[in-house]
Amino acid sequence: MRYFKKIAGEKIYLSPMNIDDAGIYTKWMNDNEVSGNLSSYPHAVSYISERRSIEQLSTNGQNFAIVMSENDYLIGNISLMNIDHLNRTANVGLFIGEADKRNNGYGSEALRLILEYGFNTLNLHNIMLRVNEDNTAALTCFKKLGFKEFGRRKEAKFKDGRYIDVVYMEILSEVLK
Question: Measuring CA to CA, which residue among 18, 88, 94 is closest to residue 57?
Fold first, then answer.
């Protein structure tokens, strides 16, 4: 088996990452549509470095492949990072790597699944994220799920010849109840 249904939803499920997907992740990390919203932009990412990253991510933390339920097709990634069990906080990050799968609700479903997992299984209370101000689809998605902006780092990212703000958002556990 290539993927395992750790957290199942309606259209997708979250599976532990598979090292054999390094080629797909390398393609995504070199796609400016994907990496432009991640910290890997503007770096060229090699297969070897991406394979090492997946090996590390697959053994540490809460890092999941986003897989379509109907055909076990990998479409992206989602992670809970910097988990602080004492203060019950974490950061979340996600992307949909396959262009034709974006804006179809898969990211929203993956985020809802990982929030439920973080709040109900890991007993977290506050989950935050960072998003580029020009990523309007993600901002809309996050707001619909209940994330609230709590800060903005002005002109903190240089992208495509201009500076853009980085928006900080958070959600509390009671929002999903």
Answer: 18
Alpha helices in the chain (DSSP H): 22-29, 32-35, 47-59, 106-120, 136-145
Instruction: Express each pLDDT in 2-48 by its tens digit.
Output: 899 999 999 999 999 999 999 999 999 998 888 778 765 677 889 99
Tens-digit pLDDT profile for residues 61-106: 799 999 999 999 999 999 999 999 999 999 999 999 999 999 999 9
Residue type, 31: D
- Complete domains list, the chain, with CATH: 7-125 (3.40.630.30)
Owner of token pair 């992670």: 79
Give the global pTM: 0.93
What the block records as the tokens of 158 is: 């240089």
d(CA 7, CA 62): 12
